[in-house]
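Incident log, support desk, overnight shift.

02:14 A customer reports that sequence design results differ from what the structure should imply. Their input is reproduced verbatim below. On-call engineer (initials T.W.) acknowledged and began investigating.
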C-alpha cells in the first residue's frame, strides 16, 4: 500500500494520459465495428484494454526523458488525433495508402480537408495535451526506479507477443497504424520489373479486352458451376459466357496472387527474378491500357499497375476493413462504351468483390440469403450466417458483372471479357476461415469468360476450344499467356501451351 501512496501521482498521471489517448485517438478504431452479440462486445473490449495497456508501456519509457516527452507528446498527440478525427467521422482506413496520399498530395488538396469540426478537434486535442504536460511537470517519482517500470516492460512485451502471434492485431489501430503505415511506405518493394525492349506488335485491330480481377470468389459457390443456390441468376441468362470450374492457384493472398496473374511469373517460380508486366508488353504493342480499382494498391503489385497508361482508384481512403467502402458498381462509372475504334485496348477492373467483411460488399437489395452475419467478430456468427453473407456477395457480383456485360453489349464491338478471382475463400472447412490457407476452397478461384457476338464470329474455333476445356484443370499461369495470345502479339516470347485459346488441339 505504501508503494501506491508513494507513486500515487505517477499512477494517476499515466491513467490520465491513457484515458486521453482512448478518447481522442484509439476509440476511433473500434467505433464502427459491428459487434452484435454480447460475446463480441466482451472480446473487443478486452482487445481495446490490451491495446491501451501496450500504449502505457511505450509512453512510460518516453516519459522518463522529461524534455523529450514535453516536446514529443503534444506533437504526436495532436497528429494522431488528426487521423482519428477522420476515422471517427468517415471510417477512413489509416494505412500505407493514406500515408502516401498525405505525403505526396499537393498542398491545395490538403486545404480541402480543413473544416471547422476538424480544426476544433485539433484545438481540443492540443489543449488536452498541454494540460497533460502541465500535470507531467508536477511529478516527482517518475523514474526508472519506480515499480511502474516493470509493468511498462510487460506492456511492451505484450505488444510484441500479440503481434508475433497474430500480425496486425494491434498495428491496425491508431496510432500504431500511422507509425507502421509510414514504416511500410518507406520500405522498398522487392518486386523488380523488366522494361520491354523488344519491338512488339499486335496483329489485331479494334480488340477490346476487359479484365475483371475479382477478390476472394471461390468457384464452387457459383450456380453456374453447379452450386445448389442460385447465386448467379443474371449471368446464367447471358449467352456467350463460359465458366471454368477448375482454376488452380497456390497463391492465396492478394499480395502474392495479383503480381503472378499480371506478369510472366509462373506459380512454380520460387526465385525473385525480374518480371515483365502484361501491360508493358501490350502498351509497347500500341494497346491503350487502363486500370480502374476499388482496392488501394498494395506495395506488392503497385508498380505493375502503374505500367498502365492510366490508373484510377475509386474510394482510395476506405480499405477492405472499412465499413463505408464503396460498392463495386461504382467502378463502372469509368467504363464508357465507345463506338468501335481501331486502337486495341485493355481495361482492368479490380474489385473488392467478396472480401471480408462480407456485409459491406452488397446493398440491402442483394440480401437474398438470411440470416446474415451480425458481428465483425467471427465467433459470434454461425457457419450458416457466414455462408449466407458470403453468398450474398456473389449475388452482388452477379449483378455487377451482368451490368458490365450489358454495358459492353450496347455497341457491337470486338470484345473479350475475362473474369478471374485472385484466390478463393475457405468457409469453415476443417475449421478454417477466409483465405491465405492451403485448402482447395481457397486455391480454386472463380474464372469466367464472356465474348461479344462480334468476337465470337471472328474467333469461332477459339471459342470451341474454350468450351472444350471448361472442366479441365487450368493453372493461374494462363492469364498472362492467354492475353498475349489473343492479342496476337509478335516480338515478345510467351508460352502458347499456357494459353487457353490454344490448348485443346483435338477439336481441330
Ligand atoms: Zn485477395
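02:41 Re-run completed on a clean worker. Output:
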Amino acid at each position: 500500500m505504501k508503494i501506491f501512496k508513494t507513486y500515487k501521482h505517477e499512477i494517476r498521471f499515466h491513467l490520465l494520459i491513457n484515458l486521453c489517448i482512448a478518447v481522442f485517438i484509439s476509440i476511433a478504431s473500434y467505433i464502427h465495428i459491428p459487434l452484435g452479440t454480447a460475446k463480441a462486445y466482451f472480446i473487443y473490449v478486452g482487445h481495446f484494454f490490451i491495446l491501451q495497456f501496450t500504449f502505457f508501456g511505450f509512453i512510460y519509457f518516453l516519459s522518463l526523458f522529461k524534455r523529450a516527452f514535453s516536446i514529443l507528446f503534444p506533437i504526436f498527440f495532436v497528429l494522431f488525433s488528426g487521423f482519428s478525427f477522420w476515422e471517427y467521422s468517415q471510417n477512413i482506413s489509416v494505412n500505407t495508402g493514406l500515408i502516401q496520399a498525405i505525403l505526396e498530395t499537393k498542398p491545395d488538396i490538403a486545404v480541402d480537408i480543413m473544416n471547422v469540426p476538424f480544426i476544433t478537434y485539433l484545438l481540443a486535442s492540443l489543449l488536452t495535451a498541454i494540460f497533460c504536460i502541465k500535470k507531467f511537470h508536477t511529478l516527482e517519482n517518475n523514474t526508472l526506479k519506480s515499480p511502474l517500470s516493470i509493468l511498462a516492460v510487460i506492456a511492451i512485451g505484450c505488444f510484441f507477443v500479440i503481434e508475433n502471434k497474430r500480425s496486425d492485431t494491434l498495428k491496425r489501430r491508431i496510432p500504431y497504424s500511422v507509425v507502421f503505415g509510414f514504416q511500410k511506405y518507406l520500405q522498398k518493394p522487392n518486386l523488380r520489373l523488366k522494361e520491354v525492349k523488344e519491338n512488339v506488335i499486335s496483329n489485331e485491330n479494334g480488340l477490346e479486352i476487359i479484365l475483371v480481377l475479382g477478390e476472394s470468389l471461390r468457384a464452387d459457390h457459383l450456380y453456374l458451376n453447379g452450386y445448389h443456390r442460385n447465386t448467379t441468376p443474371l449471368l446464367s441468362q447471358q449467352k456467350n459466357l463460359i465458366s471454368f470450374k477448375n482454376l488452380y492457384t497456390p497463391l492465396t493472398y492478394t499480395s502474392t496472387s495479383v503480381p503472378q496473374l499480371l506478369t510472366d511469373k509462373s506459380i512454380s517460380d520460387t526465385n525473385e527474378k525480374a518480371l515483365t508486366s502484361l501491360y508493358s508488353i501490350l502498351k509497347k504493342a500500341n494497346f491503350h491500357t487502363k486500370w480502374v480499382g476499388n482496392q488501394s494498391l498494395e506495395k506488392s503489385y503497385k508498380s505493375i499497375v502503374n505500367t498502365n497508361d492510366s490508373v484510377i482508384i475509386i474510394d482510395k481512403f476506405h480499405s477492405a476493413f472499412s465499413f463505408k467502402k464503396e460498392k463495386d458498381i461504382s467502378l463502372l462509372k469509368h467504363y464508357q462504351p465507345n463506338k468501335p475504334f481501331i486502337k486495341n485496348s485493355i481495361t482492368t477492373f479490380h474489385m473488392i468483390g467478396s472480401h471480408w467483411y462480407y456485409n459491406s460488399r452488397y446493398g440491402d437489395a442483394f440480401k437474398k440469403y438470411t440470416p446474415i452475419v451480425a458481428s465483425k467478430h467471427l465467433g459470434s456468427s454461425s457457419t450458416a450466417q457466414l455462408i449466407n453473407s458470403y453468398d450474398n456477395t456473389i449475388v452482388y457480383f452477379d449483378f455487377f458483372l451482368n451490368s458490365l456485360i450489358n454495358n459492353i453489349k450496347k455497341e457491337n464491338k470486338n470484345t473479350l471479357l475475362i473474369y478471374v478471382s485472385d484466390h478463393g475463400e475457405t468457409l469453415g472447412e476443417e475449421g478454417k476461415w477466409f483465405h491465405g490457407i492451403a485448402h482447395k476452397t481457397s486455391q480454386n478461384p472463380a474464372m469466367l469468360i464472356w465474348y461479344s457476338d462480334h468476337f465470337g464470329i471472328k474467333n469461332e474455333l477459339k471459342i470451341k476450344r474454350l468450351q472444350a476445356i471448361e472442366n479441365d484443370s487450368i493453372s493461374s499461369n494462363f492469364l498472362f499467356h492467354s492475353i498475349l495470345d489473343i492479342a496476337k502479339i509478335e516480338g515478345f516470347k510467351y508460352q502458347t501451351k499456357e494459353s487457353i485459346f490454344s490448348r485443346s488441339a483435338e477439336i481441330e
